[in-house]
Amino acid sequence: MRMSGIVLGLVMGVMAGGGAAEADGRPVVAVLAQNDGTEITDFMVPYGVIGSAGVADVAAVAPSAEPIDFMNGLEALPDSTLSDFDVTHPQGAQYVIIPAFHDPDNEVTRDWLRAQSAKGAVLVSICDGSIVLAGTGLLDGKRATGHFHSVDMRRKNFPDVQWQTNTRYVKDGAFVTSSGVSASLPTALFVVELIAGREAARAAARQQGMSDFSNAHDSDRFHLGWRNYLRAAWAYLTTWPRDDYALEVGEGVDEVGFAFAADMLPRTYRAHVDIVADAPEVKTRNGLRLLRTANEADKRAAVVTFGHEGGALNVNTGAQAFEDVAAYLTTRYGAGMAGFVTTQMEYAAE
Known about the structure:
Layout: H1 5-16, E1 28-32, H2 40-53, E2 57-62, E3 68-69, E4 75-77, E5 80-81, H3 82-88, E6 95-98, H4 107-118, E7 122-125, H5 129-134, E8 143-144, H6 151-157, E9 162-163, E10 169-172, E11 175-178, H7 184-196, H8 198-207, H9 226-238, E12 243-248, H10 255-264, E13 271-276, E14 281-283, E15 289-291, E16 302-306, E17 313-315, H11 318-333, H12 335-344
Parallel strand pairs: 1-2, 1-6, 2-5, 6-7, 7-11, 8-9, 12-13, 12-16, 16-17
Antiparallel strand pairs: 3-4, 4-15, 10-11, 14-15
Helix pairs in contact: 1-7, 2-7, 2-8, 2-10, 7-8, 10-11, 11-12
């Protein structure tokens, strides 16, 4: 009798170094946050992709029950504190997702990651979450990667890690690391493959509008030079008031589309984003609780809608969302600014 995809995935997970699954056989994926500063795309895209694939129980965990402050000023509530997660999952998570943090040297999250690794979890860093992971010492002697812009710093600060370039993601034993922000999508699909097998990952990729999630990547093409910094400074100093964008969020909003819009617009240094909703809390498709930051769009706000028409920017789900936002940035701010944003995301726009 052939094993089901889920059972096969569990076997693969154990072979990859994954921790114990839940009693019902479903693996647990903990998406780690710091309350005082977490990169939104690094966090929300894996949360959404893995949750929507239906191959694991996904939980947003943070040191405290206070809101998670994302680096663009938006907020969400964690599903669990680290201590509560340890009580309810004493055998640990099978996979832990590590975004980039405002404070990569935080010893609370470092210690928790070391403990999860000791219990058998596969640790998966997104973008410069690799700096967080390298700071634990667990990557010493391992192959790893990160955002193109931090490569010199990583090589200097963590010389015992074998830093790789020109790859979307690297797996070395029980550690997976990925390149810049947009790598969150193919890396999350790779995690789905580790959990449940190739066919489940292909189905999840189709769900996200992707035909390929390989690790093929040319990081050498990306550069942020003085012209980019001048562009950012000019935009910041001369755009006043900022362009206000009202992210019109309803129950079940797609995490991937929301994250790309919420992340890319502020990267112009000309825009501010707010969550506009009918209730103080709005649950995303997979249950993350976003917190409303404005009751309604003010007179200056451009409305951003998700999955339906009616706004200045209409954002679809999955990979198409990135293209939607990039196209809008080109029209609104010009090709140069759009290129500046996509470069920050380490995305090769064609």
